[in-house]
């Protein structure tokens, strides 16, 4: 139906859709968990915040799992190289994410304040650490990662864990935290009863919104010194073998796409505009506008990264023949076609029943509800 | 590859998978038992069944979250620890994992929240449908994971592409309808049903012994008896055996389980017990039942069950042929347009993986001497004594489960199950047994596949990531501490829930405002 080039392009875009889907759904769970100790002071307040995501976080988390599966299926090189390269960072993310399901479920099982406070910590770590590490990882991807492929296409990573942290990658990590905390506070403001928690969520949301704008702008300035470009012609129909492409570091190259395709500027505009809309919504107490704004902002920020780097997905900072691009790191044409078919059938179904579940669970969570109802966490 | 890295990666995978697999079988079975109990509730409208469902739902929930939490590790471990595997077969192996997320895990995880929180927001029938969706999603998850795992046991529908240096899909239908995957699926989910039935049976028996919550206990026990009997029969009858003898690897696995060092004249006898001697390559003091193995493995009296020595000879031929394929791949790497090399490759590509076995002993398989090839061929034999004994333990527990549930079913039918104390005690003691069988079964399947990560395609020692032992030890220690802590908490919570019984919590909220310990302090 589609040729190999179009399929690769579609799967490159779907990779973005999955990451954005993850940021928009599980993103507010992460943000909410990172906010938990700060917006909620009493046990009833904490339970209210936890239960604002309680019934739906599990389904949201599947976006993360699906992201992993889809990268494995459509971009096996990216899956193999990035996860083994960022080995200890991945461990950090997994360990913190493991704390989340148990934190939600087990916190309410015993009444002791000490027990509950420990799980509050666990939930905070489960929200904050992944948000930070994901951002740091994206920063590293933008910088290029120190890996090379041998002639059998086995990946060797030549960096150390501490090397992951540079001023730029830390900034990317903070941006990611700010973006998700903004999204989380917009969610909390939407889902909890009016009262002290609601007021605190708005306050943190405003701070996170301003931080998002500043960090995104500063990130743009710093990213101006980064970039790679392909030397010679890349074959979008060629076999997935990175060794046949030559890449050179080319400061400023991450901005080149915007000159070639000015429509792409819509992504950074959304990144800034969405955050402004969120701020405006917070100020005027229009909670849907705030949540819509934080969603648009996250979409714009993630799309900016993807579009700036296109066709790169994971450039190598040490070997001109190892960089992974949309043209040399995909699955075979057949697999991409099959997976596209499966996605077209099942993604709409998933979206439909997810929407239904959110509708059934609509309405604000109150402290009275969580303290009188046996089914709440 | 550094052998320490490979061994540590295997250790880590084994630890995280065995741990994950403590929770998954219970989820598989428990979700369907909830559907059964809730259906009775919807049909009869009797409150006692609602109480029953809500209680077991609580146990399900405590277990479910750990299944999900540990599943995260599994999903990403292929990339983190087995990156060459991920590159080599991602084109095929990644697809079932992605489809699992899209088709099954989304279903299960989205509805599980509604299952717990939706009691007041849905009609009775609506809630039953939600519970059913969770059960369906859980079991579909198992299907896709086992399609992926079945492909590692029997890699059909794919071939090596020298232009990309990896395996690529040729026939996705063959991957989906892989007979070994189908056999593994029915066997594994049935085992999960048994696991859940034994837990429900044992806990109900415990309550009956104590004379507590008898109304819920006797009903739960009846459901467990019926569901458990059907499932335990299906585990043993459907078994794994329908998949055997299809590929060299499964033949080898069967031979190792039987410690059959040589092909015996048909029909082969089933070795009941014996002492496999790896050095002498023979089994001492064996007690054999004539004809039975031939019947099980070939469903005939005239076909042979191939022994290990004969399979090793075949492996030796395949290594020799594989070296030719390897040589052609090296030529194609230098010049993709070398038509002669491509022709040679096409003839021998089926055996390429066997040449890779030599890489454990020599960098370039083309330099291997005939003697080295003959010795390497013995690498394809897995750990025979382990296979021999773990299979027997697993199978014995399988038969014991049939006996347990047949008895339970009879007692429930006669309505004397609340009084038969010897049986109630037995049912409590039986609780750990299915877990032992399930973990052994998993180990059999995975260790029985060694030395291959993917049978005949990629040896395990080549599949791992290029990591340092320090990084691996760090994560192994980290996972062990985290998992160990969570295991202790989970067991305590389940015991507490069981002790508390099917009583709706009289919510005693902590006096509010609670002196919530400030987390920032």
UniProtKB/TrEMBL annotation, chain B:
InterPro entries: Cyt-d_ubiquinol_oxidase_su_1. Keywords: Cell inner membrane, Cell membrane, Electron transport, Heme, Iron, Membrane, Metal-binding, Oxidoreductase, Transmembrane, Transmembrane helix, Transport. The keyword Methyltransferase does not apply. It is a multi-pass membrane protein. The keyword Transport applies. PANTHER family: CYTOCHROME BD-I UBIQUINOL OXIDASE SUBUNIT 1 (PTHR30365:SF0), CYTOCHROME D UBIQUINOL OXIDASE (PTHR30365). It is found in: Cell inner membrane. Belongs to the cytochrome ubiquinol oxidase subunit 1 family. It holds the Pfam family Cyt_bd_oxida_I. The chain crosses the membrane at residues 20-43, 55-72, 92-116, 128-147, 185-209, 221-239, 394-414, 426-445, 465-489. It comes from Sphingomonas oryzagri. This is Cytochrome ubiquinol oxidase subunit I. Its EC number is 1.10.3.-. GO terms for molecular function: oxidoreductase activity. Its main location: membrane.
């Amino acid at each position: 139906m589609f040729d190999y080039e179009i399929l690769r392009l579609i799967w490159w875009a779907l990779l973005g859709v999955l990451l954005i889907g993850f940021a928009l759904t599980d993103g507010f769970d992460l943000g909410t968990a990172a906010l938990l100790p700060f917006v909620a002071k009493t046990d009833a307040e904490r339970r209210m915040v936890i239960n604002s995501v309680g019934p739906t976080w599990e389904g949201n988390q599947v976006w993360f799992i699906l992201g992993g599966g889809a990268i494995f299926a459509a971009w096996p090189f990216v899956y193999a190289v990035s996860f083994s390269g960022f080995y200890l960072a991945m461990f950090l993310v997994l360990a913190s994410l493991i704390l989340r399901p148990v934190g939600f479920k087990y916190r309410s099982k015993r009444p002791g304040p000490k027990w509950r406070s420990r799980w509050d910590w666990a939930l905070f770590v489960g929200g904050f650490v992944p948000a930070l590490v994901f951002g740091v990882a994206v920063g590293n991807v933008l910088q290029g990662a120190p890996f090379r492929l041998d002639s059998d296409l086995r990946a060797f990573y030549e960096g150390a864990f501490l090397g992951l942290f540079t001023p730029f990658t830390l900034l990317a990590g903070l941006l990611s935290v700010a973006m998700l905390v903004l999204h989380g506070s917009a969610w909390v403001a939407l889902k909890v009863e009016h009262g002290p928690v609601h007021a605190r969520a708005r306050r943190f949301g405003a701070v996170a919104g301003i931080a998002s704008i500043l960090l995104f702008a500063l990130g743009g300035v710093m990213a101006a010194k980064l970039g790679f470009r392909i030397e010679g012609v890349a074959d979008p129909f060629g076999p997935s073998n990175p060794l046949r492409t030559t890449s050179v570091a080319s400061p400023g190259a991450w901005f080149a796409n915007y000159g070639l395709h000015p429509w792409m500027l819509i992504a950074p505009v959304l990144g800034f505009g969405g955050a402004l809309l969120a701020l405006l919504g917070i100020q005027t107490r229009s909670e849907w506008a705030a949540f819509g704004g934080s969603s648009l902002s996250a979409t714009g920020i993630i799309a900016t990264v993807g579009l700036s780097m296109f066709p790169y997905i994971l450039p190598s900072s040490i070997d001109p023949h190892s960089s992974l691009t949309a043209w040399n790191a995909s699955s075979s044409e057949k697999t991409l076609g099959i997976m596209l078919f499966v996605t077209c059938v099942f993604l709409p179904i998933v979206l439909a029943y997810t929407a239904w579940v959110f509708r059934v669970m609509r309405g604000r969570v109150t402290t009275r509800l969580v303290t009188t109802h046996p089914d709440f966490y | 590859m550094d052998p320490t890295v490979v061994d540590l990666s295997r250790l880590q995978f084994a630890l995280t998978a065995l741990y994950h697999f403590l929770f998954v079988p219970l989820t598989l079975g428990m979700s369907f038992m909830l559907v059964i109990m809730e259906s009775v509730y919807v049909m009869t409208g009797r409150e006692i069944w609602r109480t029953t469902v809500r209680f077991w739902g609580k146990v399900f929930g405590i277990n479910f979250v750990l299944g999900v939490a540990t599943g995260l590790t599994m999903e990403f471990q292929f990339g983190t620890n087995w990156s060459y595997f991920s590159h080599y077969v991602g084109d095929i192996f990644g697809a079932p994992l992605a489809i699992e997320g899209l088709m099954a895990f989304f279903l299960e995880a989205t509805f599980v929240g509604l299952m717990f929180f939706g009691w007041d927001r849905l009609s009775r029938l609506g809630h039953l449908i939600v519970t059913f969706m969770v059960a369906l999603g859980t079991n579909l998850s198992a299907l896709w994971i086992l399609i992926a795992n079945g492909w590692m046991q029997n890699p059909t529908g794919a071939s090596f592409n020298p232009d990309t240096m990896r395996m690529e899909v040729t026939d996705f239908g063959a991957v989906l309808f892989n007979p070994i995957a189908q056999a593994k699926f029915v066997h594994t989910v049935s085992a999960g049903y048994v696991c859940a039935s034994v837990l429900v049976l044992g806990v109900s028996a415990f309550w009956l012994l104590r004379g507590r919550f008898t109304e819920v206990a006797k009903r739960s026990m009846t459901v467990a008896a019926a569901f458990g009997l059907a499932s335990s029969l299906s585990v043993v009858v459907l078994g794994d055996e329908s998949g055997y003898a299809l590929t060299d690897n499964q033949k080898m696995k069967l031979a190792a389980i039987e410690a059959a060092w040589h092909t015996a004249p048909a029909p082969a006898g089933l070795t009941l017990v014996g002492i496999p001697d790896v050095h002498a390559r023979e089994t001492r003091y064996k007690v054999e039942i004539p004809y039975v193995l031939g019947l099980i493995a070939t469903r005939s009296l005239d076909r042979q069950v191939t022994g290990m020595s004969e399979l090793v000879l075949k492996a030796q031929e395949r290594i020799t042929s594989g070296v030719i394929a390897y040589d052609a791949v090296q030529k194609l790497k230098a010049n993709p347009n070398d038509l002669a090399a491509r022709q040679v490759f096409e003839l021998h590509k089926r055996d390429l993986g066997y040449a890779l076995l030599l890489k454990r002993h020599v960098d370039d398989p083309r330099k291997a001497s005939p003697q080295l090839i003959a010795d390497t061929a013995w690498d394809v034999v897995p750990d025979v004594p382990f296979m021999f004994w773990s299979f027997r333990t697993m199978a014995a527990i399988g038969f014991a489960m049939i006996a347990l549930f047949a008895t339970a079913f009879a007692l429930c039918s006669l309505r004397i199950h609340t009084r038969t104390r010897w049986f109630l005690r037995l049912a409590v003691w039986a609780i750990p047994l299915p877990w032992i069988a399930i973990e052994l079964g998993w180990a059999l399947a995975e260790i029985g596949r060694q030395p291959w990560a993917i049978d005949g395609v990629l040896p395990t020692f080549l599949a791992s990531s290029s990591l340092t032992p320090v990084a691996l030890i760090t994560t192994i220690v980290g996972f062990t501490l985290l998992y160990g802590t969570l295991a202790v908490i989970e067991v305590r919570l389940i015991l507490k829930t069981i002790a508390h019984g099917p009583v709706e919590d009289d919510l005693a909220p902590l006096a509010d405002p609670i002196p919530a310990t400030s987390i920032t302090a």
